[in-house]
Amino acid sequence: MKNKPRYICIESECNKKVWHKNSRCTPHAEKYKKYPCRKKENNPFFNHNQYKITKSFLIEEYCKNQKSERTIAKIKKCSYGTIRHWLYKYNIPLRKRNETKSKIYKGKGNPRYLDGRSFEKYPSEFNASLKLKIRKRDNFTCQLCGISEKEHIEKFRRVLEVHHKDHNRKNCKESNLMTLCKQCNLRV
User: Fold this and answer.
1) Is residue 142 in some structural domain?
2) Is residue 4 part of a domain?
3) Is the pLDDT of residue 180 over 60?
């Protein structure tokens, strides 16, 4: 057996049944609603495009200037979801994440770029036995933060790294090499 409404509309001369105490039936409730319809036209609080994001603006910034959705959102002071919404709405094709970053950070655009040195190979002298010798000399601890090799293995699942002080891969003298953890090696 299904439940039936057990209360009566509070409007005078209306005997319609309602679900909640002290409430009105649907026809009477519509009269008292401030904004009876949620449609855009009837609701003054609905602002269709309050950030004034036009198709020409998005094409200029997103396509021509190659700015990301987040960067455009900061300019317009809105969420990047709003920018994405308008990109879909104007049928502007979205870029993949790696497309945006790869163009900016490849080669000379990368802040860590050093004259193309990163493509050089290490010399044959810089081998596992030399690295072990340097780590042993430095007591298997990072020379900057002091983390031990055991802690480093637990945290990063690899042994401590050997770093060239002068950033020259060909200079494999013991005085030029030092033991660093993964994080310190990235910072240096």
Assistant:
1) yes
2) yes
3) yes
Domains in the chain: how many in total?
A: 3
* pLDDT of res. 132: 94
- For 68, the domain range is 55-105
Q: What is the pLDDT of residues 57-90, one digit of tens each?
A: 999 988 888 888 888 988 888 888 888 988 988 9
Please report whether residue 47 resides in a domain: no
